[in-house]
Amino acid sequence: MHCRSAFREERLDVLHGLMTAHPLATLITAGSNGLEANLMPFTLHAGGEHGILRAHLARGHSQLDALQGGAEALIVFQGPECYVTPAWYPSKAEHGKVVPTWNFAMVQARGKPVILDDATWVRAQIEELTNNHEGQRASPWKVADAPDDFIAAQLKALVGIEIPIRSIEGKWKVSQNRLPADRQGVIDGLRSEQVCPSMLATMEAR
């Protein structure tokens, strides 16, 4: 990943925080059919130096062959992002030498996938994924709410993926390369125009 030093994020807790908050990631593999990329929700677990990613997919999924091949996969987690207008920079009024840009935060993780053909494992992963998102609701839905035979049939059509993270990189491009006044101008612009509250929170936290 191309990343200037000003934008590099290396704190594992911060990287994991983005991955947990934005679990729908792009899984990228290279196999006999070439490069393939698909969106997939992941759960993050402790283990190894950088953590372990888990997910599930259909047995007939076109990416399964590449995952079974043992080649390293790339998983891209996209966090907050927003367009930045030059109108927010005080320096625009001073000299006009400004252009639009895009602020964003992202994490790239790499590791070799392991396929798990185990209905008990897959159910546990699905239950964790479900509970993570249903837990915020007043009346959370649970996997056990569905009929047992229905869930059993669904599980037969799925396999699990476990990816021990070999390497992990983070890029937080949140106007660190601008003068302090311009960076504050972006924060003020996001707040006053009430756009992209997640990016506003990200910038205010750094």
Automatic annotation (TrEMBL):
SUPFAM superfamilies xref list: FMN-binding split barrel
InterPro entries, per database record: Split_barrel_FMN-bd, TR_PAI2-type
Domain of life per record: Bacteria
Entry-linked Gene3D superfamilies: Electron Transport, Fmn-binding Protein, Chain A (2.30.110.10)
One protein family per Pfam: FMN_bind_2
Protein name: FMN-binding negative transcriptional regulator
